[in-house]
Every structure is written in structure tokens, then in C-alpha cells.
Amino acid sequence: MKFLIFLSLCLSLSFALDENSQIQQSYPLQSQSEAAKLLCKMQEDLTTYLRQTPHSRYRFFKDKSASLESQALITWVHGNVNLSTLGATRGHFMQPALQNEQQTHLGDYRYDLFTLLTDLLVQMQEESDFSGSKEKAILNTLVDGYFERLNNDKLQCPCIDEALSEVKPSEVLMGYTKISEGERVFNTQMHSLSTINATDDRTIRQSMNAYLQAHKLLGVKDIVSNARGDYLILSEGKSKALNDDMVFKLSLNTLPVSYQLNAKLKAKYFHKSLMEKAKVISSFNQNSYAGLITLQDKKFYVSRILPDLKLRPQSDKTRAYKNYAAALGYLLASFHANSEFQTCQNFCEKATREVKIRVLKTELIQMVYAYNETLETKWENFGSHNLLSCK
Question: Closest Cα partner for 356 from 27, 140, 71?
Fold first, then answer.
């Protein structure tokens, strides 16, 4: 009996250490108190747990993909892509948009498909009541949308119009800032924003003022940090008008998940990723403000924060979910087949010529269901132990 109790305690500790280690590797600047809050939320919500444990997901993919018949083709990916980071902006032509694009790196295109399919399956199981056959049909539609876009770079998918909610650019300012004494500042009463110390403020302000000036923008107005440990910068924008302000994010350059766990991939592609990464980020979101700065010998990526993307199924009907799934596949392919980069062009040519889509769909969807079972078991075990004081 004592042995069983000891084993249970060790198991509880291993769950806590494993999840906390993943958080620290993904967000190395995050405070201990914020990490503890995130761990508590992960215990309560499967979707949060799924998105905050990319190492576990990549380990599963890496082990299983070794035996797949489909080819491991390399392109620029967003290695931690999920339903909340992939979307589009409206306009004369639909512009694909990516949140957290600083995670972009070179890797196996199948991993991004796997992560999106996994995320979509979890969403369907939580929000709908589809049969297994309908779930699989919707997952298949995501892959179909992906290859339709690979085969036709001029394609404007009507499915996106049916899955995209209206987004206003002002939502970013409303979500992060407030007006105080006639000036716009960050709203630090928000749960996720904190002030930074004076030394860090001076260092960041000096570097960012120079960076913004080089992009023909006015200076820094305010600086805070968020729950992930990123720095948020409020800029004057191109004029002194309050509604012209912009919000930027500084994210510490961390090693992509696949490179942390796959030494062969890291050795083959890491240096090329570093040389082209800023260009790729800028190209993905047509964001001329993306770049790289150095603060106290650490590399940070600069990106402008986009409005919430709000790509959602318009109902819980099968047709709405199929449109949504097709839109997700289309948008992912827009990044993988980026015509501005030779690596993406080479990938697109090989994928459209060599990939057996039916085989790929069968293998990936089988893997997604296998991971879904593993995910739920691991999350239930993690949540069943009193690892933290979450009150």
C-alpha cells in the first residue's frame, strides 16, 4: 500500500513537472505565478491543455510519422498552428492571416495538418454531436480544401466568407488599451497585462524607438508584459491621432518544438530558418513591420498584433463545419505554398505531383483519433491530481 501511495505521488509530480517544463520552454520569460495560473486553466479545459503542450503533440507525431507511407515534404510552417491562430482579413481579395507568426520555421507540412485536424476534432466533440462518420467527413474536407488551394494559387474560397466573422481593426486598441487624461495607454487592470521595471523600460524603449523610426513610425507611448512573458509596445503609429496607434509584440526567439525534439531536422534546416525567418513572417501577413531586434544579448521578434481572427463555423450543422474545415485547409495551404519563397514553391510542386491524397488522409485521420484518445487520457490523469492550489 505504501508503495502504491508513493507511486501515485511520483506520478502526480511527473505530470506537474512535464507540463510546467513545456510552458517554460515555450514562454521562458513567463513569471512563476502566471505559469501556475496557466497550469490551473489547463487542468480545467482540454482545449487549453492541448494548445499548451506542443512538445507532447510533436513527440507523438514524430514517433508515428516514421511509419507513414506519405512523404515528409518540407516547407515553411507555423509549427504551433491551431484554430485560434489561423484566419483571414476581408478585402477585395481574402488575405490569409496568422497570429503568433513568430513560431514560423521550416518543417514537415503534415505536422501542421495534424495539429489543425486534432484541434478541429476536439472542437467538434466539445461543441457538436456528430457521429464518427460525420466527424471523419469534416476532417477529410479540411485536407481537401488544403489540396484545392495547393493546386490553384488563384483560388478564392467562398467557404471562408461563410466561416469568417466581421473584425474591426479598432478591436486591438479596445482590447489592450484605454484613454487616460487624453492619452492612450495600456490597460493594466486587465488580468493579463503587467507593468515592467524601469531598467527594462528604458532598454526596450531605446531599441524600439530606433526600430519604429526606421519604419517611418512615431515613438513608443507605453510598454507592458503579458501573461506569456512577451513585451507589448504601444506606438504612436504614423500620426499623433489616438486612433492611429499600433500595438506590437516582442517575443523571445525560442527554438521551435520540432527542433528541440528532432536533432536531424534542426541540423538540416535551422540556419536557413534564422536567415529567412523575418522575411517569411513579413510575407505571411503582408506585415512590413515584422523584424528582429536584440535586447541585452537576447534576440526578440517584433510583430504587429492583428485583430482577433474569428474564423468560426456559423452553426453546428454538418455543412457549416465542412465550410469551416475547408477554409482552414485553404488558409494553411496559403502559407505552405507561399509563392514568394523558393522553398515553398518547391514544396508545392512536389506535393501536387507526388502526394497520394487518399493515403495521406487515411494516415493522418487515423493518427488524429489515436492522439485524441491519448490526449484525453493524459489530460484526465493530469486534472485528477491535486497538483496545484487553483482557488
Answer: 71
Task: Return the C-alpha cell found at 291.
Answer: 523584424
- C-alpha span between 286 and 339 (Å, rounded): 13
Dist. CA 344–CA 347, nearest whole Å: 5
- Most confident range (mean pLDDT) of 18-22, 30-34, 101-105, 135-139 is 135-139
Report residue 77 as a C-alpha cell: 510552417
Cell numbers linked to 241: 491621432
Give the three cell numbers for residue 102.
513568430
Please give the Cα distance from 317 to 314 (Å, whole number): 8
- Exposure string of 329-347, with b = 16+ CB inside 10 Å and e = fewer, is bbbbbbbbbbeebebbeeb
Closest CA to 114 of 306, 363, 368: 368
Query: Residue 155's CB: how many other CB atoms inside 10 A?
Result: 15
Q: Which of 124-138, 294-308, 335-349 has the lowest mean pLDDT?
A: 294-308
Q: Yes or no: say if 149 and 157 are a contact pair by the CB < 8 Å rule.
A: yes
User: Do 143 and 326 meet the contact criterion of CB atoms below 8 Å apart?
Assistant: no
CA angle 283, 306, 273 (to 5 degrees): 35
Per-residue pLDDT, averaged over 29-40, amounts to 88
8 Å CB contact between 298 and 153 = no
Q: Which amino acid is at 41?
A: K
DSSP string, 352-367: HHH--HHHHHHHHHHH
Nearest Cα neighbor of 45 from 85, 79, 11, 84 is: 84
CA 141 to chain centre: 21
Q: What is the pLDDT of residues 123-169, one digit of tens each?
A: 999 988 899 999 999 999 999 999 999 998 888 888 888 887 777 77
pLDDT value at 7 more than 50: no
DSSP 128-176: ----HHHHHHHHHHHHHHHHHHHH-TT---HHHHHHBPP--THHHHHHH
Place of cell 530558418: 273
CB of 251 within 8 A of CB of 226? no
Residue pair 102/168 in contact by the 8 Å Cβ criterion: no
In Å, how far are 31, 80, 372, 378 from 53, measured between CA atoms? 18, 10, 13, 11
The residue to which cell 490523469 is assigned? 381
Give the CA dihedral 265, 293, 231, 297, nearest 10 degrees: 80
